[in-house]
Amino acid sequence: MGSLAHMVEDCNGIVQLYSDGSVYRSDENVQFPMPLINNGVLFKDFLYDKTHHLHLRLYKAAVSQTPPPRKLPILVFIHGGGFCVGSRVWPNFQNCCVRLASGLEVLVVSIDYRLAPEHRLPAAMEDAYSVMKWLQAQALMMSSENGDDAWFNTSEVDFDRVFVLGDSSGGNIAHHLAVKLGDGLGGLSPIRVRGYVLLAPFFGGVERTKSEETASEAMLNLDILDKFWRLSLPPGDTRDHSFANPFGPTSTVRLEEVKLEPMLVVADLFAIEADSPLSSTTVVVTNSLKSGLRNNETLYDIFLLSYPLAEISDLARYDCAVVDLEHGPDGASAALECIHALVATWTPAILRLLESSGGLRR
């Protein structure tokens, strides 16, 4: 008789990997008990990958606040969760997308992707690209006589203005998507990616940063982050794999030669000062990205959004900006304003539309 499977990895009861390859995942340990908000936003689920049975959820405001004609830009939202947990249906991600759809007046595309350790990287990155191909198919369908889906009507949706927003591990996925697409085309015509937002992207490396060496954070501590990497990286690979460390010794891509679209990186200055390992690696990677940006103009300093929001248009001067969000009750609205500024200032056509309707909304 064979021996019973034993646990070989345990992420605080959230994800447990057993010796026979089976996985136990507990959603109740990580889902956030919160009421769902509405904000006059409609949503609908679509199947984008039949092979892996992957879905995405679209969000748009029921009534536009901007007089027509106003085509909605597309904002692809990639959730976080250490590559191991998370779903478009989680209340925290649902509420985030509702706020984005209503606050930015965009068509939000919130995606599910294959999770580790059942599906190790690069599965999630491949799924993100599959979403872009799915969007391309919708755009091509709408340009034909058979295109009649109200969610993708070309008179209402602008496939030429696509933005990608990734949170934590989703930010890592967004980074790799940016590198793959390069100039924003990537064989995806008629859709075009115009910019990226990376919210505290999840990166790593074998060599510890100073903050990692002295980290004392209770929840996302070094131990749990290392476990996420062990569960998500290809078996036998270390945190210097290019999936974790884009500038590591195994990377086959010279990022300084990649022409990247504009990128906004949102970091947490408070967490960095408090020796958060997640935030410190964000800064290391962002500073290294500068050589691949189109104009090689990078905003190095992390600044606070107590800085007058009227001056947030300064972001337009840079291809890459690292922004810190203040802690407190206004943090969410500050993040929304910051992302709004990205969509507006880095796309002149959108800026003109916003200016014609009163400028950036407060």
Automatic annotation (TrEMBL):
Q: What is this protein called?
A: Alpha/beta hydrolase fold-3 domain-containing protein
Q: According to its UniProt record, which protein family does this protein belong to? A: Belongs to the 'GDXG' lipolytic enzyme family.
Q: Name one GO molecular function term.
A: hydrolase activity
The lineage's top-level taxon is Eukaryota
The scientific name of the source species is Acer negundo
Q: Which SUPFAM superfamilies match?
A: alpha/beta-Hydrolases (SSF53474)
Q: What taxonomic lineage is listed for the species of origin? A: Eukaryota, Viridiplantae, Streptophyta, Embryophyta, Tracheophyta
Query: What Pfam families does this protein map onto?
Result: Abhydrolase_3 (PF07859)
Q: Supply the InterPro entries for this chain.
A: AB_hydrolase_3, AB_hydrolase_fold, Carboxylest/Gibb_receptor, Pyrv_kinase-like_dom_sf
Which residue intervals define the domain Alpha/beta hydrolase fold-3 in the entry?
Answer: 75-268
